[in-house]
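Cross-posted from the bioinformatics board.
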Amino acid sequence: MAEANEILQLGIEAARDGNREEARNLFTLLTKQDPQNIQAWLWLAGVSDNPKLRRDALERAIAIDPNNEMALRGLRALGADRPSIVDRGRNAIRERTGSLLGRPSTSVPRASATPARQSQPAARPSRPAPVQTQQSTGSIMGEEELTAEFDAFSEEYDDEPRGPTPLMWGVLGALALLLIVFLASQFFGTGTASVLPANFFAAATPTADVALTATALATMTPAGPPTATPPPVMLLNRDATLTQDGWEYGMYPDPTVMNGPISLAGVPPKGTYLIVLVTVANNTGKAQPLPANFFALLDDQGRRYDVNEERSMKVYDNAPGSASDLGISNNVEANGVKTSIVLIYDVNLDATNLRLYGGSNLSQGWVIIDKVQ
Amino acid sequence: MSDVEAQVLLKTVNRLYREGDHNRARALLEVMSAVYPDNPKVWSALATVAHDNDEMTHFLAKAADAHRSAE
């Protein structure tokens, strides 16, 4: 599968760049997508910091191909002898794939036999190395290169001490002492370092179904120059809702926030489109659309963004009721039922800390996205 | 997928996108959507690399479905 090969390649590049966590996630994703992808298991073993995870990954590789030289070599490096390795492989087969015993190996065909490597230089997995492009055999890497990686992996592991050395204990002790001193200064000191941010509790306190009795009904000011001092803001949890003028409103739980310089209905954005799902419930007693510019975004640069109604409706009209229950210009029934509406904003690429506000209430909002790019 | 794993992978997607590697960003998202079809963020991100409006709407709908099923 082309996507799988792309991801394997991405993982290999990440590993070579030293991004082991990213590489681990990519290889893990691959193994979940295709548990028979032996290269994904081998690479996952190579970038795992945890010996148990390494062993598990290698055992999965053995389960797929009991004679896989690199998996055997890796397990030997972890201290397993050949019979136990084979047993582990067989057990893994029984446990995870049921009746695969006796079936031909499902591993990718090898382009060549593994050359004997008596003394491979200790190249770490992150070292730059040429990578073969995908072969017709389905193999991403050369056998030799994979072997080299595992030699490096084995040597790296063999070099690892099995427990803290006295020096490490000393360093750990010093770190613990520093931590204690730091904590003590935070609790007992009089410095300003212990002062919590003004919004700390506001952001952390559950605010579900917060009801506002806002009386300031002035409409939001149109886009203008950056304000010198943005108003204090209470940041709301995702599930919080507010009310104003008979409208209950909130963000969609676990918000759908996207950005990218894609065109909508053939129209490119000035910056980038941001797509936000909101929920509203009409308790005004009259079916009607949301008031114009009810929802707005503000960024840390002091800019205000109003919803692009035309683009929002085009997205909605493309498949009514699919992306959201209603479009921004549609009438919302006055039945108090939460209804989702898709909103499209065109925001600047340098915008940071974009927050969503509703009605005329600029004192409470939801953080949509930390930064666009 | 745990949220942590998803977040890390979505960061990879964003990096690829910023670097202009849209094909691999999409390839990664397609596999993520196959493995974790209930993750709305994956579908949402796919919408950003959609080839056309129909496809984007489809991905948005999947995201909305995932949201609803999570509720």
